[in-house]
């Protein structure tokens, strides 16, 4: 089972939206939290060592990104607030539901990696849009420093995805 419509639905939701800095912090935090949680499942439920290792990397990297975002929000005295049209929470929950309902084995490995490819594409779009919308130089800098990390995750997920076919 794949979530191939995930990036398209997220991008469509984001396309016409304007997000405040409070919204941006909330969206990025949700994405990091969801990816770390999905990684935790993959680290134990993954069959292929590449999937388990990638899950551990997602836990570590997204925990670090989340901590950086939380620290900056605190420094700037910004309280994250999800937008009313929040697409990240729904997408993250859909991915978690898929992972929790898919039996350990090749189907799980494919479901996890396919979801990670889709989600990282969408998160890159969210980050690009957020960087263009924020007027806060420190938030823009945080996003610009995180973007290559997210891109490297996407690249690695695509390599693993090809190896699972």
What does this protein structure show overall?
There is one protein chain. The protein is mostly helical. The chain is built from 6 helices and no strands. Helix 1 (6-15) packs parallel to helix 5. The longest helix has 28 residues, at 106-133. It is elongated, with a radius of gyration of 15 Å. The protein starts with 5 loop residues before the first helix and ends with a helix.
Keywords for this structure?
mainly alpha; 165 residues
Question: Could you give a short account of the major beta sheet?
Answer: none
- Provide the residue-averaged pLDDT: 89
Range of helix content: over 70%
Number of helices: 6
Question: Topology, pairings included?
Answer:
Layout: H1 6-15, H2 21-45, H3 49-75, H4 87-101, H5 106-133, H6 137-164
Helix pairs in contact: 1-5, 2-3, 2-4, 2-5, 3-6, 4-5, 5-6
Short description:
Helix content is about 80%, strand content about 0%. The chain contains six helices and no strands.
């Amino acid at each position: 089972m794949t979530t191939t419509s995930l990036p398209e639905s997220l991008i469509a939701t984001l396309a016409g939206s304007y997000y405040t800095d409070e919204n941006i912090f909330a969206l990025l935090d949700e994405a990091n939290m969801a990816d770390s949680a999905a990684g935790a499942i993959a680290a134990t439920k993954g069959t292929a060592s590449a999937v388990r290792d990638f899950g551990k990397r997602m836990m570590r990297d997204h925990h670090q990104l989340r901590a950086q975002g939380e620290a900056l929000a605190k420094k700037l005295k910004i309280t994250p607030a999800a937008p009313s049209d929040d697409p990240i929470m729904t997408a993250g929950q859909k991915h978690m539901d898929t992972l929790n309902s898919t039996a350990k084995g090749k189907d799980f490995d494919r479901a996890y990696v396919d979801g990670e490819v889709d989600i990282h594409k969408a998160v890159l779009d969210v980050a690009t849009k957020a960087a263009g919308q924020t007027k806060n130089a420190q938030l823009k800098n945080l996003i610009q420093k995180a973007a290559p990390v997210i891109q490297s995750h996407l690249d690695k997920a695509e390599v693993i995805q090809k190896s699972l076919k």
